[in-house]
Amino acid sequence: MSSRKAVNTINRVDGLSLYLKKRKALIEAALKSSVPPAGVRPATIHRAIRYSLLAGGKRMRPILALAAAEACGIADYSQVLPAACAVELIHTYSLIHDDLPCMDDDDLRRGRPTSHKVYGEGVAVLAGDALLTRAFGLLATINLPKRYALARLIEETATAAGSLHLIAGQVADLEAEGKKPTLTDVRFIHERKTAAMVVLPLRLGAMVADATPAQLKALGEFGLALGVAFQVIDDILDVTESSEKLGKSAGKDLAAAKATYPAVIGLEASRAEAARLTRKAHAALKPLGKNGDRLIQIAEYLLGRTS
Ligand code: GRG
Fold first, then answer.
1. Mean pLDDT across the chain
2. CATH no., domain 3-303
3. What is the model's pLDDT at position 12?
4. Is the beta carbon of 192 within 6 A of some atom in ligand 1?
5. Assuming Cys at both sites, which of 27, 180, 201, 259 could form a disulfide with 87, CB separation 3.0 to 4.6 Å?
6. Where do the structural domains in the chain lie, given as residue ranges?
């Protein structure tokens, strides 16, 4: 049996919770060494970076990068860790900045006081900036197979994190506050603020695994449907779960008159929409055949999450 086949067989026999536990452990270890140690001068910024980055979190985005690479048949998925960590660094930067008083003004994130509450606004802004910058440094260390150039990975990452996607979504979200958004407005925000950062790790993982163009396209379509579903579920949980359970302030969307699915179409229709989008995500993976099974399991798990 080739090493590629052997790895895929091992991956398939692990149940989902064991799979997630093993991948999360790999990611946590890689994240720890992806940024400078806490004592490096000036220690405040490195402590602040590590405080937010190593505070837990589901690590859904880096797990998706690993799972996408595995679905494309990579033999050694540890090669995907720099790309997987880069996306988690960008995600963590966006959370730190989103929590600032000038944005969502939140004091709880990943079950802890937010960065600016502990380190002050100046250091929190800079910790976010440093994480974003370091993400591109990590991408630069990737060894790629022939089909994709490193410049392409960097360009896709910059586009996903920039003013056409992540930042576009955040700006539209800020501007929609207190207004009466339409479903089209909410969809615009969710595709950019959330789905872009779900599509990105899937595509990066696939490119590191030398995916065929058809596999890459399928994973991008899967990510778009999954990413919007993920945000619809997030909107629902904000209404139905406690801050303690979520590790972040619950009920804020309603209080701040945010553009969410439940606000526009109600809770039941939002649940149905999350399920429809998850089915759409499954269908997108058809070209991957059995190799898409793990990603389908992950999508089902995210649909059923309660935190
Ligand atoms: C400041 C440029 C900038 C963007 C902010 C991340 C973000 C955009 C806003 C935070 C609020 C929010 C609802 C974002 C949508 C994405 C999302 C659901 C983030 C939370 O992701 P999880 O649940 O968090 O994966 P963990 O902590 O598990 O990583």
1. 92
2. 1.10.600.10
3. 52
4. no
5. 201
6. 3-303
